[in-house]
Write a structure and sequence with these properties.
mainly beta; M1 Pyruvate Kinase, Domain 3; 2 helices; about 40% strand; 11 strands
């Protein structure tokens, strides 16, 4: 299986039950049901991990909109833009293998921050992945396409 290094993990986030707040993590653990200790764990394996790119946040800055990292709902923020990967493509981070399962649709909650966000991020919010092989992911881990 050929691996190509494409980037690095910049930030990791989880969501806790009963709150919409996002929590910065230094490490997340994943298994076939998703991100452990995340409120979406074992809800929908096709949407168990949300991956976003710093490119989305940079795009928003061009329109003078301040958006805190994690606001897109991502679990993993990369310095690599994975949005062009096709469904079925796989990436590896440490021992964890993720398979792209679907493109993320825009949620209207983004309009709370700025009404232009849903339009600006229509194709650039993130991608969902399912966990093929679980493991731990830390900030600054290398990201590979496989």
């Amino acid at each position: 299986m050929a691996k190509t290094k494409v980037g690095q993990v910049l930030k990791l986030f989880t969501s806790k039950s009963g709150t919409s707040e996002r929590f910065n993590e230094n490490l997340i653990s994943l298994d076939e049901s998703g991100v452990l200790n995340d409120k979406f764990y074992n809800k929908d394996i096709e949407r168990s991990v949300l991956i976003s790119s710093i490119d989305s946040y940079n795009l928003i800055k061009k329109y003078n909109i301040e958006m805190p990292l994690g606001y897109l709902g991502e679990n993993i923020l990369l310095d690599y833009n994975p949005y062009s990967l096709e469904v079925g493509s796989r990436i590896q981070i440490a021992d964890t293998v993720l398979e792209i399962s679907q493109y993320c649709t825009i949620c209207n909650h983004l309009a709370v921050l700025d009404v232009k966000l849903p339009t600006l991020l229509k194709n650039d919010r993130g991608i969902f992945a399912k966990v093929i092989s679980g493991g731990d992911i830390k900030i600054k881990e290398d990201v590979y396409t496989i």
